[in-house]
């Protein structure tokens, strides 16, 4: 049986204020075409379908279009919510649209109810585990201990209990949205530690033929049977080196896995450039990045004038600017407290003005204003102390 394993669509998300809807539509076109051309038996979506609980209308319309097109091709879809989704909203009408082969597994109570598909070698049971926020599902799953590992273990116990009652040789696939130990994160994933210790050991999924993971945005293989598909698009510059793909998973009659990565369309490459502004503007080595989305890390000791406008003249798609000034070795080794030792409040304030003005300190009039402000604060503090 053949699957396409995807996750983390994040429909409705932007990239540094750049609208990604057209790029997401291009991905959906690619996914539908790949599913048809490769004659897959199901498409798996392991969470974070949307980027937020209440997505914009355009994102909902794109989601609707994707499911309709796959249903028209007769390709089943198994989909679970992630931590960005509203499980209840995503699951509206789930039992009705299941008749069209669209299987939304959004209810933690249904963890042990598989979607059953059949090929020439027998049944394949696909268990969709929604994102399990420990504080919200502990009672439902009968878990006393707090933490993601505890609730996911309880959900997998239900999976194994259901599987024990099925015919011998039934192959199993589990979809889960979690941070599994050994996975490499990026800047664009929402922290899930609020519900307890985030990391879940891969051993939780023992006995399963294939685990289709979502949450981490980089495609990665934790073991032959446990994989992240990653997000189909880059959602932060920390993903600049990612190769965005979906997994084609072939499951044979014995439950053995053959996996192939299929490249997703890239709307525009990403580039993280670092250096002094003049070097970024003049160095020919950066010609390859002139059509990329660029994050520029400026290292000039003093902030240069109009850096974004000057960068845009060479890199028209620069969308992020970070200022990390170079420091002298002795200054870099000093702690913040050491750099301030022996300096008055007024001197510290004047240094700050000089820092943000590319080395130009305050005028005489501004020094007078700063001095007056500090005098007023000291007088107020003295009056407060006298009252005590």
TrEMBL record:
The keyword Amino-acid biosynthesis does not apply. SUPFAM superfamilies: Metallo-dependent phosphatases. It comes from the Bacteria. Keywords: DNA recombination, DNA replication, Endonuclease, Exonuclease, Hydrolase, Nuclease. Residues 267-355 form the Nuclease SbcCD subunit D C-terminal domain. SbcCD cleaves DNA hairpin structures. These structures can inhibit DNA replication and are intermediates in certain DNA recombination reactions. The complex acts as a 3'->5' double strand exonuclease that can open hairpins. It also has a 5' single-strand endonuclease activity. Heterodimer of SbcC and SbcD. Belongs to the SbcD family. PANTHER family: COMPONENT OF ATP-DEPENDENT DSDNA EXONUCLEASE (PTHR30337), NUCLEASE SBCCD SUBUNIT D (PTHR30337:SF0). This is Nuclease SbcCD subunit D. GO terms for molecular function: 3'-5' exonuclease activity; endonuclease activity. It holds the Pfam family Metallophos. Residues 1-218 form the Calcineurin-like phosphoesterase domain. GO terms for biological process: DNA recombination; DNA replication.
């Amino acid at each position: 049986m053949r699957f396409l394993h995807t996750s983390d669509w994040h429909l409705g998300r932007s990239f540094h204020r750049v609208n990604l809807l057209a790029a997401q539509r291009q991905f959906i076109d690619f996914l539908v075409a790949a599913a048809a051309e490769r004659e897959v038996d199901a498409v798996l979506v392991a969470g974070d379908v949307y980027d937020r609980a209440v997505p914009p209308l355009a994102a909902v319309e794109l989601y609707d279009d994707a499911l309709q097109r796959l249903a028209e091709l007769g390709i089943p879809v198994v989909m679970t919510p992630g931590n960005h989704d509203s499980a209840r909203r995503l699951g509206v009408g789930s039992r009705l649209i299941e008749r069209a082969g669209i299987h939304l597994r959004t209810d933690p109570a249904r963890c042990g109810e598989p979607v059953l598909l059949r090929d020439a070698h027998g049944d394949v049971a696909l268990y969709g585990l929604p994102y399990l926020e420990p504080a919200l599902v502990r009672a439902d799953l009968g878990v006393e201990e707090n933490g993601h590992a505890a609730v996911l273990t309880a959900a997998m116990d239900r999976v194994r209990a259901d599987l024990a009652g099925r015919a011998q040789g039934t192959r199993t696939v589990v979809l889960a949205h979690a941070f599994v130990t050994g996975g490499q994160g990026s800047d664009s994933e929402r922290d899930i530690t609020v519900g307890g210790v985030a990391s879940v050991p891969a051993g939780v999924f023992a006995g399963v033929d294939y685990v289709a993971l979502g949450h981490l945005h980089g495609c990665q293989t934790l073991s032959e049977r446990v994989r992240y598909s990653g997000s189909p698009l880059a959602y932060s510059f920390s993903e600049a080196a990612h190769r965005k793909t979906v997994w084609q998973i072939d499951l044979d009659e014995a439950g053995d896995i053959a996996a192939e990565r299929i490249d997703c369309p890239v709307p525009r490459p990403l580039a993280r450039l670092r250096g002094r502004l003049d070097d970024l503007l003049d160095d020919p080595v950066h010609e390859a990045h002139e059509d990329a989305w660029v994050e520029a890390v400026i290292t000039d000791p003093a902030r240069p004038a109009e850096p974004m406008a000057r960068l845009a003249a060479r890199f028209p798609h620069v969308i992020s600017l970070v200022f990390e000034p170079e420091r002298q070795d002795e200054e870099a080794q000093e702690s913040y407290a050491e750099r301030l030792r022996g300096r008055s409040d007024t001197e510290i304030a004047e240094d700050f003005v000089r820092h943000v003005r590319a080395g130009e300190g305050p005028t005489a009039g501004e020094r007078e204003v700063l001095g007056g402000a500090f005098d007023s604060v000291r007088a107020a503090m003295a009056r407060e102390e006298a009252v005590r």
